[in-house]
Design goal:
MerR-type_HTH_dom; MerR_fam; 13 helices; DNA-bd_dom_put_sf; Transcriptional regulator, MerR family; mainly alpha; Multidrug-efflux Transporter Regulator, Chain: A, Domain 2
Length: 247
């Protein structure tokens, strides 16, 4: 068989066959006196196996490993890894479809796309014009997919849906423009920490990622008095979290 004939028989292109020769995946047959390659039935069988393996999703280096192991042990190992990788991709696709489904159920917002769990959390939050509440929403969107997760958002839901949280936001708004030694700071920080349920602390993963400089960037987003409230809240929450995990 000539190269075009073996390619047509197996269902690949002549260019593919030449590439397999070039990388050493398919041994190049002897040439006739006229310079043409002559392929045997064995060549066709090997080429067909290469095609089947690549159609399964194996990379060419993996195909080479499979072909080098006549006992088939390498094939079983590689196929197992391929199956695990496909399962991971399938899970990721399902997660993306969940996000798309939530988005399509609308209405679409300038914040999109968000995780379905965060969308549900934000839907239940009481309406407010508080700038501090708007900042909290922005921070949640920033951290969506980094620290957030179904368990975290589920633990946040009672707090987010509680109208009693709005006066706390309003008190934080009132500190806009105030100095970092304002006498209202300590009481507001204590009240904000007290509003955080233990269930939320339990939902925070111990190995959650941290970002260098994130705390400084967060505090810089507030006026001096507000930043001092947020700093104290973060400090007390870290202590609560540490005590909980140590107990």
């Amino acid at each position: 068989m000539r190269i075009g004939e073996i390619a047509a028989l197996v269902g690949v292109t002549s260019r593919t066959v030449r590439h397999y020769h070039h990388i050493g995946l398919l041994p190049e047959p002897q040439r006739r006196a006229n310079g043409y390659r002559v392929y045997s039935l064995r060549d066709a069988i090997l080429l067909a196996r290469i095609r089947r393996l690549t159609e399964l999703g194996l990379a060419l280096d993996e195909v080479r490993d499979v072909l080098a192991d006549d006992a088939g042990r390498e094939l079983a190992e590689v196929l197992g890894e391929l199956d695990a990788d496909l399962a991971r991709q399938e899970h990721e696709i399902q997660q993306r479809r969940r996000v798309l489904k939530a988005l399509l159920q609308g209405p679409l917002t300038p914040d999109a796309p968000l995780s379905p769990a965060l969308i549900e959390l934000l839907k239940g939050a009481p309406a407010t014009t508080s700038p501090a509440a708007a900042k909290d929403r922005e921070h949640l969107i920033l951290m969506d997919g980094i620290v957030g997760g179904d368990a975290v958002y589920a633990a946040l839901r009672p707090l987010a849906e509680d109208p009693a949280i709005l006066p706390l936001y309003e008190r934080l708004d009132e500190l806009d423009g105030a100095e970092a030694d304002d006498p209202r700071i300590a009481a507001l920080a204590d009240d904000l920490v007290a509003a955080v349920p233990d269930e939320l602390l339990a939902a925070i993963p111990e190995d959650g990622p941290t970002a260098t400089g994130f705390e400084q960037a967060l505090l810089a987003d507030y006026s001096p008095a507000q930043a001092e409230v947020v700093r104290r809240v973060m400090e007390q929450m870290t202590a609560r979290l540490h005590d909980r995990r140590a107990s």
